[in-house]
Amino acid sequence: MRKMKIKQNDKVMIISGKDKTKIGKVVKIFKSKDKVLVEGLNKIKRHVKPNPYKQEQGGIKEMEAPVHVSNLRLVCDACTNPTRPGYRLTDDGEKVRYCKKCDENF
Ligand SMILES: [Zn+2]
Q1: CA of 40 to the centre of ligand 1 (A)
Q2: Distance 51 CA to ligand 1 centre (A)
Q3: Average pLDDT, stretch 10-29?
Q4: Residues whose CB is less than 8 angstroms from the CB of residue 14 and which lie 6 or more positions away in sequence, other chains included
Q5: Exposure string (b/e) for 15-34, b if CB count within 10 Å is 16 or more?
Q6: Which residues surround ligand 1, an ion (CB under 5 A)?
Q7: CA 96/CA 88 separation, integer angstroms
Q8: pLDDT tens digit sequence for 27-37
Q9: Residue pair 39/64 in contact by the 8 Å Cβ criterion
Q10: If one looks up domain 1-75 in CATH, what number appears?
């Protein structure tokens, strides 16, 4: 089974579709589906019916749709490049993720 390397609050770049090359922050992860919700990206328009009980107006509402992880690249905080992360152990034996481009932990 492939392990998902993306975590909440990670920065990711979308590499396909209409938001290609745009960068956003991961706000939610759907582990079973290998999908994540990226803040402000991959927006879809959805028609919403008015709901008087919730005092909601009907109309077209824009919302983010989950993006499959295969369409994302992690973005390194330090060098701001999309990267494939590596993993290594610190002197304390803690596992950390690092950027293979600039060698910084992120
Ligand atoms: Zn980097």
Answers
A1: 23
A2: 47
A3: 96
A4: 20, 21, 22, 23, 24, 38, 41, 42, 67, 71, 72
A5: eeeebeeebbebeebeeeee
A6: 76, 78-79, 99, 101-102
A7: 6
A8: 999 999 999 99
A9: yes
A10: 2.30.30.30
CA of residue 45 to ligand 1 center, whole Å:
34
Which ranges in the chain are annotated with CATH 2.30.30.30? 1-75
Distance 13 CA to ligand 1 centre (A): 14
Distance in Å, CA 12 to ligand 1 centroid: 13
At 39-61, the pLDDT tens digits run 999 999 999 899 899 888 899 99
